[in-house]
Amino acid sequence: MDTKTSLGNKNYQFGFHKKDKSVFKTPKGLNRQIVEAISYYKNEPDWMRDFRLSSLVIFEQKTVPTWGADLSHINFNEIYYYADPTNAKFRDWKSVPKEIRDTYEKIGIPEAEKKFLAGVGAQYDSEMIYHNLKKKWEEKGIIFTSMDDGLKKYPDIVKRYFGTVVPPSDNKFAALNSTVWSGGSFVYIPKDVDVSIPLQAYFRINASSIGQFERTLIVAEEGSNVHYVEGCTAPIYSSDSLHAAVVEIIVKKGARVRYTTIQNWSTNVYNLVTKRMFIEEEGIGEWVDGNLGSKITMKYPSAILSGKGAKGEVLSLAFAGQGQHLDSGGKMIHLAPFTTGTITSKSVSVGGGRTSYRGMVKMVRGVKGSKSFVRCDALILDEKSRSDTYPVNIINESDVILGHEATVSKVGENQLFYLQSRGLSEVQAIALMVNGFIEPIVKELPLEYAVELNRLINLSMEGSVG
């Protein structure tokens, strides 16, 4: 039976949780002994244990960022850094322990797998407890497994790419992830293989005061194509949780990778994520990033355009309500000529929520013929809410094109009056305008995810307007 959450939130659909029955859980806090315990429990090779320990040194040396949202209330000593919910992993939903299976059935993952997906991974606290790839894709040589199993079964590939796109030294939370990472997905797409329907991973925090630190590595070989979708939720507790993931993607020559996130954490989660693609010649890398929920989000999906003709795109959506600060955006790094980058950011703030666009375009010397375009649009629904824009452009080449547009708007009284005169309530009218505002992002989602995102936004607005 579900236990009751200590904080109520009628607008948050996934606030239920199950009693913590972890089979192995480290004490609160972080030190060398805990890092070694995690690594030995996982039976990892020496090089990964050494990687973790060297990352711990970097984590201890780096300071918490002070240039974005307020992270001063994070207490690293009050977090459980590893919890294994079960000592077995599964490829059949019927074999998953009932209390865990019930959680994913409420979220709808088994049904989605049947209807829409080529493969599914489900993470519960620190471990991927379920992973399955349909046989037709396995026969084409596709690898879709947990990061831990990827390390065990494909050590040469993992060792070659792990930590190359996002090194531990990148920032404090990348160092933390590198120290205590667990779970996440390892995806390998062979040359010229086109995965026509999405792969999906779902990340669920269940235990209180826990950190989730999944690590995802995707390698798309020359001419391949894949769409990876992730979703995230957590129940609501009186204590805060920390989510600090790292995503590394390598897009080889002529390959294409789209990575879609629908994040709906509860409003007691610090969501601090580093996501980056390395895109080679004529490759295409796309981030579609939908951010709802969380207490604080700091996330800037990035594309490094390293090969001639490479293309990168970031579509970022943030929806912030009462007590939330979503600091998001994107980065486009041009390292080769004739590369193209596009960043489109849409944000909505309501009920005293705060959104921030934070982005960077960098063009190094020699990237002639390259183009980059940035568009930031913010919609503020009341006088209590706030939106900020922090763009950085570093241009060291003259033969390039850079465009930057930004708009801030509020709900127009005339529009509102017209819609209400057609029989809509104020809440319905504002929701309709919000859905129109975010439509350029939503239209890039698969239909079933677009419907879910619109529904979540409408739920989030209940009680915040009107």
Measured between the Cα atoms of the first and last residue, the distance is 36 Å
Shape: globular
- Compute the number of strand runs: 24
Low-confidence stretches: 1-20, 109-121, 125-131, 234-238
Main sheet attributes: strand count, strand direction, barrel closure: 12 strands, mixed
Radius of gyration (CA) equals 21 Å
> How big a fraction of the residues is strand?
35-45%
Helix percentage range: 10-25%
Summarize the structure in words.
- The chain has 466 residues and is an alpha/beta fold.
- It has a domain at 24-299.
- The protein has twelve helices and 24 strands.
- The strands form three sheets. Strands 5, 6, 8, 9, 11, 12, 14, 16, 17, 19, 21 and 23 form a twelve-stranded mixed β-sheet that branches. A ten-stranded mixed β-sheet has the order 4-3-7-10-13-15-18-20-22-24.
- Helix 1 (32-41) packs antiparallel against helix 2, helix 2 runs antiparallel to helix 8 and helix 6 (147-153) crosses helix 7.
- It is globular and about 65 Å long.
- Mean pLDDT is 82; it is low at 1-20, 109-121, 125-131 and 234-238.
Task: Write a concise synopsis of the structure shown.
With 466 residues, this protein is of the alpha/beta class. The protein is built from twelve helices and 24 strands. It has a domain at 24-299.
